[in-house]
Structures are given as structure tokens and as C-alpha cells.
Amino acid sequence: MAAHQEKKLAEERKHQNMQNDTKVSQGQWGRAWEVDWFSLASILFLLMFAPLIVYYFIMSCDQYQCSLTDPLLDLLTGNKHLSDIWNRTPTLTYRAAGIYSLWVTFQVVLYMSIPDFCHKVLPGYVGGVQEGAVTPAGVVNKYEINGLQAWIITHVLWFANASCFHFFSPTIIFDNWIPLLWCANILGYAVSTFAMIKGYFFPTNAKDCKFTGNFFYDYMMGIEFNPRIGKWFDFKLFFNGRPGIVAWTLINLSFAAKQEELYGKVTNSMILVNVLQGIYVLDFFWNEAWYLKTIDICHDHFGWYLGWGDCVWLPYLYTLQGLYLVYHPVQLCTAHAVGVLMLGLLGYSIFRMTNHQKDLFRRTNGNCRIWGKKPEYIECSYMSVDGTKHYSKLMTSGFWGWARHFNYTGDLMGSLAYCLACGFEHILPYFYIVYMTILLTHRCIRDEHRCCSKYGKDWKHYTAAVPYRLLPGIF
Asked: How many C-beta atoms lie closer than 10 Å to residue 34's C-beta?
């Protein structure tokens, strides 16, 4: 009898411990459950000023030849008023609304209606139905990976029109750039608002929702982890990749076409920007299945940060170099051009090789060779909301032994190359490297905070084995 009672008490203690572990995991894995004053202030700042920043950059190019200081000087000296600048800004047009509606609809059709065939004909490409990572609630979602296919179809049609059909001018994007900005904002705010309402009233998975009780934080950072409509339309995968990143290369091509229309030629700097950013975009879609394991899909909830950011911030600020070169056609000397190309290719190579090492390690569960040797790793455990214990392996070999986020180092090298292609006359093209440095440094810190909460003492063992974040020996 005593033995039976002791066994029963032990089981109750075990169950209680599991519940406690689950609460810790639920409270700390993913975005915050509670909001401190600094986070709230940051959220309010971004909600108020991020749209203004985008407008200011685009307006500066349209009205001030890409000068970031002249608009401020005009306002401070009284030469112009805000109303003067606003009245010169192109408004939303029916043409732009039609173009944008057709564009988004076309990308939805490509995403939802055409199963991937690229993985059947391209050796090494992983497409079709793939599984994502385990969510905090213990769910493993399935995704239709067909981004490369959508990119190819879109660009084949673009070049077919430019060379044969001539239904519209290749400069159509540049010619409607600011009216399209208003369309992108409407979609960004609409999808963010819909995602919040959906999270409250009809979430895809209620266990993967998080409510802080603060309206602004929940709107910004999202409530639902993986909002979906139906079985396959996943908000995060669609808006992260399409329509913004598919459009990235089309936008650059339109800028190149406008440069040729205005000056009779395309400069080597514009070619470099198109090639280097095109490589990055193609890499994204070639490795879209790998993207399912990144921070955007694995940790971020879907709110204004991703919804508006992917619709507006990404296509408008990631393409500033090409836009700048329309207004300032820079022809680089051979040495400068070669240096930019080499830096961009080196950065991409580091970015890709580092991610390849991690992907290979994950796919083989560590049964592979990194730099000719069996990889070293630290095994970690964590608990999902349903009480299930999971295990992960954190590699400490190869590039991942140099720094915990060495892929970001390569990414920053590529970002710097895009900016250097624009010369040194204006600071506007260099916004991208400043922004990416802040973004990726913040991601390092944010990701590591989550990993520390998720893995506990195992994470401390990992950081002891790999002490640097981005730059070996420095940071």
C-alpha cells in the first residue's frame, strides 16, 4: 500500500514537473508573452515611422534626385512646406491598382494552383510538399514548395513580353513606382489587420497563438504562429517569398530598362546590382525548403512586422540601389567593378556554404563530413507545449565553429557589395548595409535569447564552445 502511494506521488510530481516545463517553454519559446516598456516604445516607433521612412526615401529620389538632406533643408529654411512636397507626390491611380491587383492574384494562382514540377527535372532541387519545423504547440506543418517555379514562370513571361509581345513597357514598374507604393501599403495593412482578427476569432491552431494583452504589440508582432486559409495557403511562406521577393528581380530589371530609355545604355553598376541581387533571389528560391527552418518561419508570429514589411519595406527599400542608379547612372572603373563583383561573390559563397553545412548536418542528423571530418556538436533538449520532449543537435564544426551566425557575415558582405556598386556620391544607397547590420545583429541577439530560453543549460554549453556571434575574435 505504501509502495503504491509512493509510486502515485512520484507520478504526480513527474506530471507537475512536466507542466512546469511546458509553461516555461510556452512562455519563452517564440515571441514574448509580456511586453516591457522598451519593447512597447520600439513597437510604437516602428508603427509610426517605418511607413514615413519608406515614403521619405522614395520621395527623395522622385523630387530631390536621391538627396536625403535637401528635403530637410527645404523644410527647415522655409523654402517648402510639407504640403508642397505632398502635393507633388503621385497619388494612387486606377492603373497602378489594376497592375498590383493582377500581380498579387497571379502570384496567388502560381502558389496555389500549380504543383511544383522543378524538383522532378532539376537535380539537387528540393521542392514539392515538404515539412516545416516543430511549432511550440508540437505541430509539424506541411508546405507546397514551388517558389522557384513561380519565379521562372514570372520571368519567362516578363522577357517574352519585352522581346516579343510588347503588351506593356519594361519600365512599367518604375513609371508607376509611387502609385504602386500606395497599393502595397493597402495590402500590407489589410493582411496584417486580417491576421490579427483571425487570431482572435478563427485561428488555424489556437495553441500556437500568443496574446500579450497589448494591442499594438500583438498587431505588430502577430498573434498566430502559422495562420492559414484552407490546407495550403500559408501566410508566412506566401508573403515572405511572394509577391515581394519574386518582384525584387523584376523591379531591378525595370530600373535597368528605364536607365537605358533615359541614357541610351545600361551602366556596369546597374548590371552588377541586377546580377548580385539576382543571385541572392535565385538562391532563396532554390533553397526555399531550407527556409522553412529559419527564424521567420520557426519563431516569428505573423503580424504587421511580416505582413506590411514583406509588402512594402522589402520591395521598396531592398531595391534602393537600382532606383538610385536610374537617377545617377554610375559607370565604374574596371578595378572598382571587379572589386565589387568579387566581394559580392565571396559574401554569397560564405553565405551559401555556411547554410549548406547546417542543412547537410540537419538532413543527415550529423552523419556527414564537414571539411573532411565528422562534425562535432552539442545535443540539446526542449519541451513543446503538448509536453513532448524533443532533441536537437547544435553543430560546432566548420563555419559554425568560427561563429554562431557566420552565414550572416556572408550576407553582410554581399549587402555591402550592392551599396559599393553605386559609388560614393550619395549616402542613400548605403542605407541597405546600415539596415542589414542592425537587422542581423538584432536577429543574432533575438535568436539567442529564444534559444537560451528554449534549451537552457545546453545553450550555455554551446556558447562556451562557440563564443563569437558574427566575427571570430571580435563579436
From this structure: 10
Q: Measure the CA–CA gap between 94 and 103, rounded to whole angstroms.
A: 14
Q: What is the pLDDT of residue 362?
A: 86
- Among all chains, which residue has been given the C-alpha cell 522622385? 62
CA-to-CA separations, 78 to 58, 74, 85, 226, in angstroms, rounded: 22, 6, 12, 49
Q: Is pTM, for the whole model, over 0.85? A: yes
- Name the one residue in this structure whose C-alpha cell is 503504491: 4
Tens digit of pLDDT for each residue in 422-471? 999 999 999 999 999 999 998 888 888 888 888 888 889 999 999 999 99
Q: Is 314 within 8 Å of 245 (Cβ atoms)?
A: yes
Residue with cell 572589386: 339
